Amino acid sequence: MNNNLLKKFLSYSYGGFLGAIIGFITTMITTRILSPEEFGKASMFTLVSSICMITIIFGTDQAFVRFFYEENEKKRGALLFNCLKIAAVISVPFFIIFILYREPVSILLFGEYSFVVIVLLLVGVLLQVLNRFALLVVRMQQKGKLYSTFEVLNRIFILVGVISFYALYGSSYTVLVFATVISYGILIIFQFIGQKNFWSLKNLKIEGTKHSKKEIIKYSYPLLMTMLLTWLFEGMDKIALRQWSDFQEIGLYSAAFKIIALLTILKGVFSTFWVPVAYETYEKNPQNKSFFSRVSIIVSFLMLALAILVIMSKDLIILLLGNEYVEAGLMLSFLVFIPVMYTISETTVLGINFSKKVKWHVGIALVVCLCNIAGNYLLVPEYGGVGASISTGISYILFFTLRTFISLKYFKVNYELKKIYSSVLIVALYAGYVLFELRLLNQIIAGMISLFIITLIYRNFLIGEYKAYKRKKI
Asked: In angstroms, how far is CA 181 from the centroid of its own chain?
């Protein structure tokens, strides 16, 4: 990466890393005050609010990203409101249905009826929709520092909210629900003020945008199907645990997810930074394939190495959550493949996005979703959260594979796939090993050996990068 790209990445990443630290502190506090069962209920709130947001947005967020640089700069605010109008129309009947069936929905999700939580769910969904677009406005302008500031503020608001609402409601999952919703509400006020030109109602009156609402919908609806299937793929583990286990197991599994937060945050930071950079680079010079190859190799090595380090340190991190959550450590080993394979795939999926063949995403999501459903069906009844983590980890490897090979049909780049798959195999073997080897010293030794092997696999590239760096200094 050149210096400008590195600066952009760092401007996005510091907020992600600070947010991850604050988020982990919040998780430590939350797991100390909430039992795994209550933590599981809060996780169901997060899961359902996500699917509601995805449905209402209808894929228009991706249309906003794709058309942003093609739109006249003065009309980008109008493009934003065109996307929001579509979301607003979809939200009305959606919310009406939710209110009418509030009692059975509440009992299904939380094991009890609470009208207040249902209202908070709907308000939270609306705020998440606005937050999604508000962050995209900042992201597509490549204002990394502002984006990072919003990330940090969000985490701080949730931390303060958890502490404050615990004093009011005690050890109830509603503590996390209230804290999350209030955080989004306050954050959106800051976002509107910080980007008031985009959110000015004057943009409603602007006509003649290059991309009409009809074109937005045409581009978006296949992506909606993709996102819904992706949500089912990503949420199937918790759904399976709700079906074949209990809130306690969901809570343990969700706690393991929180441990992956550092990698997940990194995934989000990289995607936020990478998407506008990749589109802008492609628009300027579509033949600059060496740039995309180099970024992919760097990202794959760093993510796979980081995965090994996280697995090696899992037992130490788990201790910070409290004795009730010790079993979550066993679920962590294969969960590292979620952020790792997704992040790497963001560098190899470009052919699908550049060629606007977005319907491929539907097929990919469908295949991976079916794979994950089958895996959870076979593993969760017997092995609970550990089985869910194995199924999800394998599914993400398949997810990377399908995205990459279909992308190569439209945009051929040398991603050094032999290096990636060899290293993925090493990480998978190590993840499986620590499920059975309980002695910490042996786990660490195996981890160091795995890290050494991966470094050997990438050694020629790493040596070349080091030599290039030395030449620049000279």
From this structure: 19
The b/e string for 205-236 (b: 16+ C-beta within 10 A; e otherwise) is ebeebebebeebbebbbbbbbbbbbbbbbbbb
How do the domains of the chain map onto residue ranges? 1-211, 263-474
Amino acid making up residue 1: M
pLDDT tens digits, residue range 233-260?
666 666 777 666 667 677 777 667 666 7
Q: Which of 212, 242, 179 is nearest to 385 (CA)?
A: 242
d(CA 262, CA 339) in angstroms, rounded, equals 9
Grouping H, G, I as helix, E, B as strand and the rest as coil, residue 336 is: coil
Tokens of 265: 């945050």
Average pLDDT of the residues of the chain: 82
Phi/psi for 271 (5° steps) reads -60, -40
428's tokens:
């998978």
Of 461, 352, 362, the residue nearest 412 (C-alpha): 352
Of the two residues 231 and 384, the one the predictor is more confident about is 384
Locus of tokens 């950079």 = 277
Distances from the Cα of 403 to the Cα of 142, 302, 361, 391, angstroms: 25, 20, 8, 18
Give DSSP secondary structure letters for 367-389. HHHHHHHHHHHHHHHHHHHHHHH
Model confidence band, residue 289 (pLDDT cutoffs 50, 70, 90): confident
Query: What distance in Å separates the CA atoms of residue 194 and residue 224, rounded to the nearest whole number?
Result: 29
Question: Which pLDDT value is given to residue 59?
Answer: 81
Residues 6+ apart with CB under 8 A from 109: 41, 44, 45, 48
What's the CA angle centered on 374, arms 368 and 380, to 5 degrees? 120
- Output the CA torsion 285→289→292→296 (10° steps): 180
* Predicted pLDDT at 31: 77
CB count in 10 Å sphere of residue 101: 12
Give CA angle at 375 (372, 376), nearest 5°.
85
Contact between 71 and 209 under an 8 Å Cβ cutoff? The reply is yes
- Which ranges constitute the DSSP H helices of 314-358? 314-319, 328-335, 337-348, 350-354
The first and second tokens of residue 195, run together, are: 């980007």
Amino acid letter for position 192: F
244 vs 194 pLDDT, higher one: 194
